[in-house]
Specification:
Helix 1 packs across helix 2 and helix 9 runs parallel beside helix 10. The protein has 325 residues and is an alpha/beta fold. The N terminus is likely disordered. The chain has a single domain, classed as Vaccinia Virus protein VP39 (Rossmann fold, 3-Layer(aba) Sandwich), CATH 3.40.50.150. A hairpin with a 2-residue loop joins strand 8 and strand 9. Helix content is 36%, strand content 16%. It catalyses: adenosine(1618) in 23S rRNA + S-adenosyl-L-methionine = N(6)-methyladenosine(1618) in 23S rRNA + S-adenosyl-L-homocysteine + H(+). Belongs to the methyltransferase superfamily. METTL16/RlmF family. This is Ribosomal RNA large subunit methyltransferase F.
Length: 325
């Protein structure tokens, strides 16, 4: 098996509470993964030319095994799996979003951490991996509603929850039956969420997604970059692209959020392209969002961010915190 000598070095700067600082401890991860079904991480780990344990990060199965081992080792989540071809989320970066959301709640509560078990979060487009609810329930004991338009993705998440009964009671799965809706059909008339979160589709079309894949392979030095290739972290159509791409999806989310302005304290969404922020902020002002925040997340050389907005007045925010937190 080939091992990527130039596998990414994990000297990234994560949130201070992120457990994934520094290099991967492959011996510890291999030991933790023994409780999971085969193939296991041990099947993909070898020493590279420098004698350092690593995996071939261009192999989807190896990346999936690594992320499953991280979930088991650090969060006691067992039996995590996704169908071949589905998006495989890098756990260290995904949990950063959760930690920064926790900071946002603390900031909204006069610097005091809200009672963890009282926090309810809506995850838009949870995918087959269900990673945000799994991480948020494990790290903070938050309650989640995980929504998606794809029933097979939700069925896969249900299987993961059945393997993890200790956190399954904190996560509810809901199918979005309308491909043109985001919050509608998911948020009930008498429901309130402290947070909503989303990792939106990035590309505007399948062709854009394939072009992005080729650029990634080329940047990794793959000689087959000009051929049709798949990303080592996968991704189905709904996970990778939608008409208009990221900007159009988030704009639709903003417009629809105004219909539920008193039912969610903070609406949030990842924004991959910093160039989209100006347009999104203008739209938020147009729909009369009262507070708008851009939260930067520095992860080594990668700059990530999410945008957060609320329609609640200061007095409404105070009442919300007093009643719920």
């Amino acid at each position: 098996m080939s091992i990527s000598v130039n596998a990414p070095k994990r000297q990234a700067i994560f949130h201070p509470r992120n457990k994934h600082q520094g290099e991967y401890d492959f011996k510890q991860l291999i030991a933790a993964d023994e409780v999971n079904p085969e193939p296991r991480l041990a099947d993909f780990v070898q020493a590279n030319l420098a004698g350092i344990l690593s995996i071939d990060f261009s192999q989807a199965a190896a990346v999936k095994a690594l992320n499953r081992a991280l979930l088991t080792s650090q969060y006691n989540i067992r039996g995590w799996n996704i169908p071949d071809g589905n998006l495989c989320p890098p756990i260290p970066g995904r949990v950063d979003y959760i930690h920064y959301l926790a900071d946002l709640l603390k900031m909204s509560n006069h610097g005091k951490t809200p009672k963890k078990s009282s926090i309810h979060v809506l995850d838009i487009g949870t995918g087959a991996n269900g990673v945000y609810p799994l991480l948020g329930a494990s790290e903070y004991a938050w309650h989640f509603v995980a929504s998606d338009i794809n029933q097979s993705s939700l069925s896969n998440v249900q299987g993961i929850l059945e393997a993890n009964p200790s956190i399954a009671k904190q996560i509810e799965i809901r199918k979005q039956g309308d491909a043109n809706a985001i919050f509608r059909n998911v948020i009930g008339a008498d429901e309130w969420f402290d947070l909503s979160m989303c990792n939106p589709p990035f590309h505007a079309s399948l062709e854009d997604a394939e072009a992005g894949t080729k650029r990634k392979w080329k940047n990794l030095g793959n000689q087959n970059a000009n051929k049709k290739a798949t990303l080592n972290f996968g991704g189905t159509d709904a996970e990778l692209w939608c008409p208009g791409g990221e900007a159009a999806f988030i704009e639709k989310m903003i417009l629809e959020s105004a219909l539920f302005k008193t039912q969610c304290f903070w609406f949030t969404c990842l924004v991959s392209k910093a160039s989209n922020l100006t347009t999104l902020i203008k739209l938020l002002k147009r729909v009369q969002a009262l507070q708008i925040k851009t939260i930067e997340m520095q992860q080594g050389q990668k700059q990530s961010r999410f945008i957060a907005w609320t329609f609640l007045t200061p007095s409404q925010q105070a009442s919300w915190a007093k009643l719920r937190w």
